[in-house]
Design brief:
The complex is a heterodimer of chains A (620) and B (241). Chain A is of the alpha/beta class and 620 residues long. Chain A has 20 helices and 19 strands. Chain A folds into 3 domains: 226 residues, 3-Layer(aba) Sandwich (Rossmann fold); 169 residues, Transcription Regulator spoIIAA, CATH 3.30.750; 151 residues, Transcription Regulator spoIIAA (2-Layer Sandwich). In chain A, strand 16, helix 14 and strand 17 form a beta-alpha-beta unit. Chain A is globular, with a radius of gyration of 25 Å. The chains are: A alpha/beta (620), B alpha+beta (241). At the A-B interface, helix 1 and helix 9 of A face helix 1 of B. The structure holds iron/sulfur cluster. The site of iron/sulfur cluster (SF4) has 11 residues of chain A, from loops.
């Protein structure tokens, strides 16, 4: 029997003990004494969330294909276990071997959202690893961060030995070789870090010095040794079509958020919505080979026994062979004990047809993400979805028997006016009118329902809106009230529903997203005073955070509402993501003029990502 | 065709709750290519039912589930296929065909066998030894007052455990106890209830994590209230050649 790190007393007194015992189907078992490198891969949130993440499954598979490396998993203990581990000084452990994380060579932490930052400190703390990279020795693992938030790693830079900028498939092999050589040579930890800094895509924060202007903005950001490059280049997979993919993903015992086979069909996006970070940092768009995907679908369903399969990408309708792929899945698997969970597709004859095959039309709803309430607003954000598209799509769906529509919008984007906010209600109302026009009384089954949801906009690095002034909490809530009021004025208001969120977390996310190294002290202070699981509304403690800003003398508005000049040096400017700052500036100006930019397949806009030498940039 | 599957759930699998065991077996059916029957309707589910849920923390050697299949290979082949895709700790013991008119396992359950041992360190905590504790328990069952207040959904109710304990004996090594307890929908007695009553009778607090409990077997009753005739659930089925 595999040993467990926790006793029966502990496991039986916490919720969901299965989160902590490992042993799942397809878990990789190796003898730790027979490998050179032990890699602990961490998602700093609870198991149920972390196990649902595709990226970790890909890296887990990739590392474990290497004979010299054993990759194991680590997640944030839930608050009940967190308390026990602190009281009893139990070191955090990896699920596979149940050995303490502190004895590993690497601790890799994926950075998926800013609100997980205090959980990173929890993982380090419970692992008994010093929070600050500067305090670590060879006795401790190399702590490396990766994932979307590493495109502005500065607010958490001092907690990490290094960051991996780009897609994980590319230079980890090189990093591991470098590590093994360093160990063999008997290098100091610092010597190893310098060697690693020479690998493309690796950023070692301690090798860079930062100076600030009097007004608090960045004055300079420079390497402090010859080994560190001036700019760190993003690395990405260019032979994506047939890139290896995990055929035997892990199958958790407990029901996690994504309890299904997930097939990644492409990376990147052609659309260039101006608020969207993923759209820029994963450029250019690259597609998987459809025949390879079909083969994977079979293998993965067989190896996991999952009852559901879904496709993953930023904008599935743009996948060249989407009709072929979806038709294949429905024909092969639907009705044979496997649910095909459709990606969100452009509403047209094809998507309505497959939807009617795999979903109960009466119970399912159509989804549109106009993101802006008026055409002017959608032009500003470069969302190429027109009112006509939406109304035509809805009309067709209503004729097909649907009567529920979900709409997603963002509030607080640059140049937004009262009219734009009210436009959300007007568009929702128009959709209900389409229903009454299109569906004769005798054919109506149930009432039409339109649910509009808004989230609050947070400007992100490496987007055209990185220069945008963010709204204050009060401004956000006022916008939501405008929408709500207008909704109530609508003639068909009984068919409309409007949801919006709290704004506290949004403001904080705004600080962390565009923060610099000065913000690290705030994160640490908040963590030490009890902030944890900030992305969970039930555990988010806004007052602790507000106190932390005060304790550290850090001004929230400086990071959120301040107007940034077009030539300001940003904390993340040392990263080269392929997309140039010139292009982003152009796009910012286009936004200010409500000017639409065509997508990559209509016309190349010269964003800079062509330099990677592949993908959509070379389609024609 | 109805099939009864007997499995064991040992080791770390004791931390997997009943709902998750159900989900686990649904996936086993797909991995092992069991040609299981699905219900009709928009979201079809597998025809599968379990005999008796096992609480988190307990292990089991004779657990049961029934399924319906459209076709099947031999028992030996099905055992091989299913056991090739098991998590460590779960093992399929038998795969047997039931008569077409067979009653499902859940409604058959009448009694369960358990073996109970004290976990390491708990005999000292209770101021006794393993052997003394177990011997004491056997004589308590034989001679003591086993009336307890049982909390139910409808409130509290006085229950005499004595007629619901069909058998008890100290295990061969002298360190544990064997119990045959009434089970099923009518009079379901969990071993913890007996252990708690015993601890209380000695004026000791019941240590919730103090016992390692293994359910050995699950039985149906072919006899009557007056003269029980317990037979294992497995005995209703036949091997498929
Ligand atoms: S270089 Fe052109 S085609 Fe390539 S990602 Fe940029 S805009 Fe699109």
């Amino acid at each position: 029997m595999r040993k467990l790190a926790l006793s029966d007393e502990v496991l039986l007194s916490v919720s969901q003990p299965a989160r902590y015992i490992g042993g799942e189907i397809n878990m990789v078992v190796k003898d730790p004494s027979k490998v050179d490198v032990r890699f602990a891969m961490c998602f700093p949130d609870v198991y149920d969330i972390g196990m649902s993440h595709l990226g970790i499954q890909i890296l887990y598979d990739m590392f474990n294909r290497r004979e010299d490396t054993y990759c194991e998993r680590v997640y944030s203990p839930w608050t009940d276990l967190d308390k026990i581990m602190r009281e009893e000084q139990i070191p955090l452990f990896a699920l596979e071997s149940q050995d303490p994380v502190k004895d590993f060579d690497f601790l890799g932490i994926t950075l998926q959202y800013e609100m997980s930052y205090t959980n990173i400190l929890q993982v380090l703390d419970l692992s008994q690893i010093p929070l600050h990279a500067a305090d670590r020795t060879w006795e401790h693992p190399i702590v490396i961060g990766g994932g979307p938030c590493s495109y502005n790693p500065e607010p958490i830079a001092e907690f990490f030995d290094m960051f991996y900028i780009g897609e994980g498939e590319v230079v980890y092999a090189q990093l591991i070789e470098t590590y093994k050589e360093s160990k063999k040579r008997g290098d100091s930890r610092e010597q190893f870090l310098k060697a690693a800094a020479q690998i493309k895509g690796i950023y070692v924060p301690s090798l860079y010095d930062v100076e600030y202007n009097e007004d608090g903005t960045l004055k300079s950001f420079k390497p402090n040794c010859p080994e560190a490059p001036e700019t760190v280049e993003k690395v990405l997979v260019m032979d994506f079509a047939n890139e290896v993919y995990p055929e035997k993903p892990l199958v958790p015992f407990i029901k996690v958020t994504q309890d299904r086979v997930v097939l990644e069909i492409m990376r990147g996006c052609i659309r260039g919505c101006r608020f969207c970070q993923a759209g820029q940092i994963y450029k250019p768009l690259r597609e998987k080979n459809v025949e390879y995907l079909k083969e994977l679908a079979y293998k993965m369903l067989k190896s996991t026994g999952h009852e559901e399969i879904s496709l993953s990408s930023l904008s599935s309708s743009d996948y060249t062979d989407i009709e072929e792929m979806v038709t294949y899945l429905v024909d092969e698997f639907h009705g044979k004990g496997v649910n095909v969970s459709l990606p969100s597709l452009r509403i047209d004859a094809f998507s309505l047809d497959v939807m009617s095959k795999v979903q109960d039309v009466k119970k399912s709803s159509l989804t549109f993400a106009p993101e802006g309430g008026t055409q002017r607003m959608r032009d500003v954000i470069n969302k190429g979805l027109t009112e006509e598209d939406i109304l035509n799509g809805a009309a067709e769906a209503f004729r097909g028997g649907w009567n529920r529509v979900k709409l997603y919008f963002m509030l607080g984007q640059p140049t937004e006016t009262v009219e734009d906010c009210e436009g959300i209600a007007l568009l929702s109302e128009k959709i209900t009118e389409v229903f009454f026009d299109e569906v004769p009384k005798e054919k109506r089954q149930g009432k039409v329902q339109v649910v509009a949801s808004t989230s609050f906009f947070v400007p992100k690095p490496f987007t055209p809106f990185q220069w945008a002034q963010m709204c204050t909490k009060e401004e956000f809530l006022e916008k939501a009230r405008i929408v709500n009021r207008k909704m109530k004025e609508m003639k068909n208001h009984k068919c409309l529903k409007y949801n919006w969120h709290e704004a506290d977390v949004t403001v904080l996310e705004g600080v962390l997203a565009r923060g610099d190294r000065k913000v690290a002290a705030v994160i640490e202070d908040a963590y030490k005073n009890g902030a944890l699981y900030d992305s969970w509304s039930e555990s988010f403690k806004n007052d602790v955070w507000m106190q932390a800003f005060e304790n550290c003398g850090v001004d929230i508005d400086f990071y959120t509402t301040r107007e940034r000049s077009l030539d300001e040096l940003f904390p993340w400017d040392f990263i080269d993501v392929g997309v140039t700052k010139e292009f982003l500036k152009r796009e910012w100006n286009n936004a200010m003029n409500a000017k639409v930019t065509p997508n990559c397949r209509m016309q190349c806009s010269g964003c800079g990502a062509k330099n990677f030498g592949g993908g959509v940039c070379f389609e024609n | 065709m109805k099939i009864r599957i007997k499995f064991s759930k040992q080791g770390n699998m004791r931390f997997i709750g009943h709902l998750d065991v159900m989900r686990y077996f649904q996936k086993v059916m797909r991995r092992a290519d069991v040609n299981i029957r699905y219900s009709e309707g928009f979201s079809p589910h597998q025809i599968m039912s379990f005999a008796a849920p096992l609480g988190v923390g307990l292990t089991g050697s004779g657990e049961y589930l029934d399924i319906e299949v459209l076709s099947t290979d031999s028992s030996a082949e099905m055992l091989r296929r299913m056991n090739a895709t098991m998590a460590e700790g779960i093992h399929i013991v038998s795969y047997k065909k039931l008569p077409d008119d067979a009653v499902n396992a859940m409604s058959l359950v009448a009694a369960c066998d358990y073996t109970v041992r004290l976990r390491e360190g708990y005999a000292e905590k209770l101021g006794t030894t393993n052997a003394d504790f177990m011997n004491g328990l056997v004589s308590y069952i034989a001679n003591g007052n086993l009336e307890i207040v049982k909390k139910t959904k409808k409130g509290e109710r006085l229950v005499d455990l004595k007629p619901l304990i069909f058998d008890s004996a100290v295990t061969e090594d002298g360190e544990g106890i064997f119990l045959k307890l009434s089970s099923g929908s009518a009079n379901n007695i969990k071993p913890e209830l007996v252990l708690e009553a015993y601890c209380n009778s000695m004026g000791k607090e019941f240590p919730a994590f103090g016992f390692a409990i293994n359910r050995e077997e699950v039985y149906a009753d072919n006899g009557s209230e007056q003269a029980h005739d317990f037979v294992t659930l497995e005995s209703f089925g036949e091997d498929i050649e």
